[in-house]
Amino acid sequence: MSARTLSEAISARWHLDGFSETLRAQDRSPATTRAYLGDATAFAQWAGERGILAPDSVTKQVLRDYLLFMTTRGDERSSVLRRRASLRSYFAWSLERGHVEADPAARLLAPRATHRLPKLVVREQLDNLLEDDWGDDEWAVLDRAVCEVLYGAGLRVSELCDLNLTGVDFTQGLLRVLGKGRKERLVPLHRKGLEALRLWIEDARDDVARADSPSEALFFNRRGHRLGPRDVRRILDHRVARGHVHPHALRHTYATHLVEGGADLRVVQELLGHASLTTTQIYTHVSKSRLQKVHHQSHPRG
Predict the structure, then answer these.
(1) Which of the residues 77, 180, 233, 234 is marked catalytic?
(2) I want to staple 148 with a disulfide (CB 3.0 to 4.6 A). Which of 84, 157, 188, 196 is the partner?
(3) Integer Cα distance of 278 and 289 in angstroms
């Protein structure tokens, strides 16, 4: 059986097309829809390798084994939690549609969340990334604009990829961003970021666009499609001279620099698009930990 035929068989047995249609009808963000569908598909493939070929054969123990499998192979805790949420959504939908007689994920316990401090981009690495001369061809102009916006506006990667041309307000220096839950917010962008965007829009964007490119998209990849999260990771892998920088680390660094600069925590919450202030408060801990590190390294009795 070919890989495509196998994928179609899995989708049919697990009713994944119907699940996908429901997610889209619920007006979830494209990123959430992709994540939930991808998580359900990954579980179906994992279960199939163990002889479990349909949702009505899944028990709560099978789901626990799957969470344990992801944990022991080293998946991030946040990823395990998200996949648990995806499976709860999928099996609740399966019960509603009559594909299962009982919901095995209804009371599935999540692994205990850890509160590790987010990884930051060190100042030297950040300066090298944003100040290096990458040349002036269209793709260098794109890469520069992407990096400036990721750090300068503190966006999630999905938010950057979903930016539209009409969402850039050069007069007021604002970006119109579609965040989690499809909530819209306005985020200011600094002068260098606006300059990088203007250069991309006026000198490069039309040159790389193709006939079938989405006219509303702000950023394109080399295939003429809307820029995707993998494209952003490739840009950073290509442009970071030493070490590795994850796109989300630029968002963490942006937030930490705001807090260290004296920004009100509720303002930072609004800029980041956090639903809860509790999520934003982690950056106060990051700042304290950095102060302690400097103190230990610099004070005679540190």
Answers:
(1) 180
(2) 196
(3) 18
